[in-house]
Amino acid sequence: MNIEKVSHYAVVFIAVLALFVSIWQVRVGHRHNQLSVKPYLDFHIDQSDSTLHVSFSNEGFGPAILKELTFEYEGVTYPRLETYLKATGEIDNVRMMYNYSRNTVVASGSEKLLVKLKGSGVRGVKVRMKYEDIYEKSDEFQFTF
Fold first, then answer.
1. Least crowded by CB within 10 Å, which of 3, 9, 88, 95?
2. Structural domain harbouring 1
3. Does the structure show a pLDDT above 80 at 139?
């Protein structure tokens, strides 16, 4: 084998290696971009002055777009907060309430009130939120109050 053939093989090998490195860099960059706008939902429960205050927030870097928000209590799923409150007799305890619709945007750094109820007892309601990020990647967040 002469030196010229070895040189050609080395050039081809380096070109293929450069192609793989380029593909890897694109994948790493894409993953970085997705993580840099990923929402991170959290919940907050405050019990004071015989009032239960329930809210949620987005502590991530990008917006969360709500796709579905349901409430489960004692094995029954309710599609809206108001429906749960009426069915369980809690509607008279409401001091403030918000019903969020499909495609509600929860901006990064924002906090959204869910409900303020008279009486500080925890009810055992499971809140389930399905949401998407701006890359349309679905995720789910749930908590109980």
1. 3
2. 1-36
3. yes
Q: Are residues 30 and 45 in the same domain?
A: no
- CA–CA separation, 81 and 71 (whole Å): 7
pTM of the model: 0.80
* 51 and 122 part of one domain: yes
pLDDT digit string, tens, across residues 89-112: 999 999 999 999 999 999 999 999
Closest CA to 81 of 56, 99, 93: 99
Do 49 and 30 lie in one domain? The reply is no
DSSP 120: -
Question: Phi-psi category of 119—alpha, beta or left, where left has phi over 0 and alpha has psi -120 to 50?
Answer: left
| pLDDT (tens digit per residue) in 59-80 | 999 999 999 999 999 999 999 9
* Domain match, 14 and 64 both: no
